[in-house]
Write a structure and sequence with these properties.
transport, transmembrane, mainly alpha, transmembrane transporter activity, membrane, 79% helix
């Protein structure tokens, strides 16, 4: 690292804080603070959506999988991109029309307020662990950049994200994500990818140096790919962090086309990461751990200045996911859990200053909690697996069932969340966190519980379904958070 590299990184970090301060001036209402006023156009929407889904796991982990498995190491990030494409093409327009702030509010609207608190707790646990996994990744990056102690690196990186997220909420996060998207594109796709391939001698030399399995599309294993689809593709369909970005779209068309562009970008990013990892295997065949591949190739193969920009790109990947997960965690904690426990509801008019202040406090509190947990937790993969297993096993069926099956009921949704979530947790304790069985049997149990209990109970009230259909059709209606409360809906 030279003075030029350090300067690039410091300027980048200072720019993130400056954008956070600027975003604070635009966050004058709850809608501005939580969903950027629901007015992002296609360019900003697609850029920020790509930024949030492609985090440290997709960048550092994606290169690590390429180092370990070759081109088939792209499958993890490919399934993320495929999930985002499915969300954008089939569901994003309907989700955007609901005009809610959280997934739990969608469930309240669909089922009549019977499952919001429980689903909110599950979603909060998922977003908290997602934020933690992103924050832990600062230790690796800041160690390479500054040689900092792990705890100091986590606190420094986490504090910067908490600062700009608390200042301006979604507006600050949107502005910083756009910069991060550009930096990530230039640093990883336009610089690191071609330089790594050239340093490794080109594709011909890479094929001659490595076993044939490194260039097999299914070298990682069909079962692993299937598990990735269940966890990551389905996780993209229902995560609060992803939905909250859908809510920022200006209209249906932006949500659909912008999300499709972001999903396509993810596919390209997946292949690039796997190729970089494969090149790293040629250059450094005996690294201690696959996840060291990214930092090693950046440190040793890149010229002055470029090295700083690519490390800034790695920081961009981590920060975008971390900030998105943090605001999602705080939104759920404040509006789906704390407000319900106090018998209050989220309002978007009349007391916007108080609502913005309350959400800002929750971002700060959740940020401190995330940093604290990150300091004591070491295993990123296990934490991320727990987060996605609980999310998909507990909430996939109630959410997709609510969108696709009118016979689904609130009792069925509650049973699905409870049975699926408990099955996943029990099997992770028995078979191990990284085993495939928890998500397989958790999803199956959740599906059976949802269908069986829904058919065994009274259909959802016709008036509730009528409001739901009107909202999905985009007909004028007040947001559910303005017209209902936990007390009146039974949440």
């Amino acid at each position: 690292m030279t003075a030029v590299d350090y300067t690039v990184i410091v300027v980048y970090l200072a720019g993130m804080l400056a954008l956070g301060w600027w975003g604070m001036r635009r966050a004058s209402s709850t809608s501005d603070f939580l969903v950027a006023g629901r007015r992002l156009g296609p360019f900003m929407y697609s850029g920020t959506m790509a930024a949030i889904v492609l985090g440290g796991a997709s960048t550092i982990g994606g290169v690590g999988l390429g180092y370990q498995y070759g081109l088939s190491g792209a499958w993890m990030v490919l399934t993320i991109g495929l999930g985002l494409l499915a969300l954008s093409v089939f569901f994003s327009a309907r989700i955007a029309r609901l005009k809610v702030y959280t997934v739990s509010q969608m469930l309240d609207l669909r089922y009549g307020g019977s499952s919001g608190l429980i689903s909110g707790i599950v979603m909060w646990a998922y977003t908290l662990m997602l934020a933690v996994t992103s924050t832990i990744a600062y230790a690796t990056i800041f160690d390479v950049i500054f040689g900092l102690d792990r705890v100091v690196a986590i606190v420094l990186g986490g504090a910067i994200v908490v600062c700009y997220s608390t200042l301006g909420g979604m507006w600050s996060i949107t502005l910083t994500d756009m910069v991060q998207f550009v930096v990530k594109t230039v640093g990883v796709l336009l610089l690191l990818l071609p330089i790594a391939v050239v340093k490794a001698g080109g594709f011909g030399a890479m094929k001659s140096e490595l076993p044939h399995g490194y260039f097999s599309p299914m070298g990682i294993g069909a079962q692993t790919v299937f598990t990735y689809v269940l966890i990551y593709s389905f996780g993209m369909l229902i995560g609060q962090d992803i939905w909250q970005r859908v809510f920022t779209a200006r209209d249906d068309r932006v949500a659909r086309l912008g999300g499709t562009a972001a999903g396509t970008y993810c596919l390209a990013y997946a292949v690039a990461g796997a190729i970089i990892g494969t090149a790293a295997k040629v250059l450094y065949p005996k690294l201690g751990a696959p996840d060291d591949a990214f930092a090693t190739i950046v440190k040793d193969a890149l010229p002055v200045g470029v090295k700083g920009l690519v490390l800034a790109a790695a920081l961009s990947a981590v920060m975008s996911t971390s900030s998105g997960a943090l605001i999602a965690c705080a939104t759920v904690a404040n509006n789906d859990i704390w407000a319900r426990l106090r018998g209050r509801t989220l309002r978007t008019s009349g007391s916007s200053h108080d609502e913005v202040g309350g959400n800002r406090v929750f971002i700060l509190l959740m940020g401190v909690a995330v940093i604290g947990i990150s300091v004591v937790l070491n295993d990123v993969v296990e934490a991320l697996t727990v987060a996605y297993n609980v999310l998909v096993g507990g909430l996939l069926m109630p959410i997709l069932g609510g969108l696709l099956w009118k016979r689904g009921t609130g009792a069925g949704a509650l049973a699905s969340v409870g049975v699926g979530g408990l099955t996943v947790v029990a099997l992770m304790g028995w078979k191990g966190i990284l085993a495939n069985e928890p998500i397989y049997f958790g999803l199956l149990a959740s599906l059976v519980a949802y269908v069986a209990v829904s058919l065994a109970t009274k259909p959802t009230d016709a008036a509730i379904l009528d409001v739901w259909r009107r909202r999905l059709a985009g007909e004028p209606a007040a947001p559910v958070s303005e017209t209902t409360s936990p007390a009146t809906t039974g949440a």
